[in-house]
Amino acid sequence: MTSRIVNDTDGILTEWYWWILKGTSAEKAALIRTSDQGVMFEGLTYFRSHWPLLR
């Protein structure tokens, strides 16, 4: 995992993740929001970048 940010505000947990598979152009981002009642939102994105970021 390249980056992870977690924030808890008023009982709602927001998590953001970013992955880069080193040596490739594959990347992934995820945004997840949860509360005591369960998952409120989950979004995942997979893509390839032409920029040589952390590879």
Architecture overview:
The chain has strands spanning 3-9, 12-20, 26-35, 38-48. It has a four-stranded antiparallel β-sheet with strand order 1-2-3-4, with no helix packed on it. A hairpin with a 2-residue loop joins strand 1 and strand 2 (12-20). The two termini are 13 Å apart. The chain has one domain. With 55 residues, it is mainly beta.
The number of domains: 1
Q: How would a textbook summarize the main sheet? A: 4 strands, antiparallel
Assign the structural class, choosing from mainly alpha, mainly beta, alpha/beta, alpha+beta, or little secondary structure: mainly beta
Helical run tally: 0
Summarize the structure.
By secondary structure, the protein is mainly beta. It has no helices and 4 strands. The protein has strands at 3-9, 12-20, 26-35, 38-48.
What's the topology here?
Blueprint: E1 3-9, E2 12-20, E3 26-35, E4 38-48
Antiparallel strand pairs: 1-2, 2-3, 3-4
Any key phrases for this structure?
4 strands, four-stranded antiparallel sheet, mainly beta, 55 residues
